[in-house]
Amino acid sequence: KQEVTQIPAALSVPEGENLVLNCSFTDSAIYNLQWFRQDPGKGLTSLLLIQSSQREQTSGRLNASLDKSSGRSTLYIAASQPGDSATYLCAVQYGNNRLAFGKGNQVVVIP
Amino acid sequence: DVKVTQSSRYLVKRTGEKVFLECVQDMDHENMFWYRQDPGLGLRLIYFSYDVKMKEKGDIPEGYSVSREKKERFSLILESASTNQTSMYLCASSLHRGPQPQHFGDGTRLSIL
Lengths: 111, 113
Known about the structure:
heterodimer; A: mainly beta; B: mainly beta; 7-stranded mixed β-sheet; 4-stranded antiparallel β-sheet; 53% strand
């Protein structure tokens, strides 16, 4: 069974610092990996999707890398802002169009 | 942009009631999904559907059923609501059966009293 882990569960960083969020998964047979953002009480917003054949994806201040063989992905957020405070979820797509989610990194950016 | 709309943001029901959660997507997506999200447990798949009138059980289907009479609409039904079904429910859709990104609605926070 595919398991996805995100550590730490919560972190705080001063405004302006770069954020580094890690995701690991147990089975490398994935189709893609998606990073989501979730604000309190809200749904999930897709940030980046990396296909299994890709190594990274970039969107503005966000960059996500994927090392499928070692079962790891990293989300980088450059020059963090208070508006980046949210929970970030990693999910891998595998098998029959299933998504396996991590439990998220709860991020607070301190002004 | 894909729009996935869940009919209610907040819902309060009583134990034993039959509860309907509705989800509509506007992009002709074939696949639709229902998840629940609980603190410490993350998102768990309840049911999903690849086509009209077609459904498959996810990881935690007990106590739930679903209905997909039209392609754009996927309903989650709590046959007899219980307090342990108090949760955040999230609906998602994706384009077709192959590996495609899932697009999520804003969620329904359901409380069963």
